[in-house]
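Appendix B. Worked example

We walk through a single record from start to finish. Start with the input: the chain for Methyltransferase domain-containing protein, Aquifex aeolicus, length 222.
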Amino acid sequence: MGYRTVADIFSQISGTYDFFLKVATAGRIHSWQRELVSLMNPGGNWLDVGTGTGEVLLKLGENYEGLRVGVDPSLEMLRIADQKCGSCFFVQGIGEALPFRNGSFSNVSLSLVFRHLEDKMAFLSEANRLLAENGRLGLIDIGRFRGTFLLLLLMKTLLRPLGVLLFGRDRWSFFIHSVEESYSIEEIENMLRLRGFRIQEVRKRFLGVVYIVVAVRTASGT
Ligand SMILES: C[S@@+](CC[C@H](N)C(=O)[O-])C[C@H]1O[C@@H](n2cnc3c(N)ncnc32)[C@H](O)[C@@H]1O
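Next comes the structure step. The output line below is what the pipeline stores for this chain.
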């Protein structure tokens, strides 16, 4: 599935996205995002890739010392983000080819985006290129773990009526597929190391369904 198809899906659900995410995570998404922010560098330009409705950038607050920049291929998601955060900068684009100069950011974040990326290694190369020395890359996402089959079962049964009601049958199938395609933490750590990152912090949340990983750029990652 190409990034245009993925972006189209998110454009179509942009109006209900925040509500669904809150329900699906029992409101926990906000505390995970705040936790991620607390583990990153305390200032400097911040890039949020796959920013969606801009929630990570919002959590940095108005007084954040540095530019707050969000990238997403979906214009509809960016429109909502722009309404929520007037002092943030939003750019339409994809994580695999980012239009910024080398070393321009202290922090790069992805919240619930990594498993949707078409080319994960290309993104990690870009994150490495854009980060200054000791810059941090922070990820929140659904990982593959022993209970993944249970989560999939829930999505295919209990959560299905709400998912189909809010998003439609095809788009709900897309979310199920994206969970089936998720990576284990070990796989993610290996990918990060291969692209010049040192693992700083790994936390599991939501009974191990969700991971928060923070890595530090230590070497060039080409
Ligand atoms: C599940 S949403 C996450 C939004 C937001 N980060 C959050 O935590 O609520 C995934 C977002 O990733 C974006 N996306 C999909 N493919 C992408 C890509 N290749 N590069 C960057 N963003 C992408 C989608 O358009 C969508 O807004």
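Two observations about the output. DSSP finds ten helices and seven strands in the chain. The first strand starts at residue 46 and ends at 49.
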